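Readers of this paper often ask what the protein records in our data store actually look like. Nothing more is needed to write down the fold, since each code stands for a local backbone conformation. Below, we set out a record of this kind in full and without editing:
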Amino acid sequence: MGLYDIPAMVDYVLKQTSVKKLIYIGFSQGGGTFFIMNSEKPEYAEKIGLFIGLSPSTRNLYSKSLVFRGLLAFQTFRAELETVGIWEIGRRGSPAIGALNVLCQNKLVAAILCEAITIALDAPHLESITPEIERRIWKYFPAGTSVTNFEKFGQALESEKFLKMDHGPEKNQELYGSTKPPEYNFEASTVPTVIFHGLSDHIVDTKDVEWFLPKLPNVLDYIQVEDPLWNHLDMTYSRFWNETIFRPMKKYMAQYDSI
């Protein structure tokens, strides 16, 4: 994603709009893959006027999420899953996910089962995500991802650094020239940067954010949401998003829009 997909999207937008630079807003993995792009293709920093990171996910050493910590298992079972032809988890349109999407449209089920899953994934903030928004989330979530991506997150839960994929000593030697995966280079992200984060984020913990922040060379602002219950999913789904996130974000977007 960081090496191919995001650079392709950046180039496409620049070509279609004829602007010199764009503003990149990345939530969670969308923030982490932005750092990967800059590390692997540092020339792309010249194409971005401003980076806004909403709880960017890099290493996840201190994650408190029970569901997210379950991804550790994919380090053990990925090969077995792929052997039997399972390459993707949570695919939209699959019978199990389709049934969950339908069940969570029921108000009672959404209020009990689906909200319980959301809380296990992140942290409780009951007044922030309304029942209507909860049902809307579960109409489209989850959308699926590869078992490789799950394994990479599993590795990030145990690593003290933001590392490339660990394929094992032999494959690492072939790909990286060393038996261990190298670190991504945060210093290559020279783009003016604004980071938003919530103190009750159980997926991307404050300790992990404050670990990578000093490594970034051009941080304009680090905004910790005042609400102590603000969690990971609030960054995109909260009914208070406009006032809490968009207003300060808009200030920086206006400042860097003409660059």
Notes: The chain has a mean pLDDT of 93. The longest strand covers residues 48-54. Residues 104 and 113 are 8 Å apart (CA to CA). The domain at 1-58+184-259 is CATH 3.40.50.1820 (Rossmann fold).
